[in-house]
Amino acid sequence: MQEDIEREVAKEEALHFGSYFQPSENERSLKHEDQAYGFWKEWAHMTVQKQRNLSAGKGTHDYSEEEETAADTEAEPNTDT
Prior knowledge:
Blueprint: H1 2-16, H2 25-55, H3 64-75
């Protein structure tokens, strides 16, 4: 326990005097894991959207954005007359 404390104090002193330490192996691994999770989350979202479209009879195309813009244009009254 004393050695751990000595190492921590030495690190704090080095940081105080301007030393820079590279990210540890754990920090690098966590960063890669976060990137992989982000990729998986996007893939899962797209897969669920495709399955919902198929179950609604829309096919594999994502119509969600097109439906929103069509609904917005229909809601606006025509004042060109």
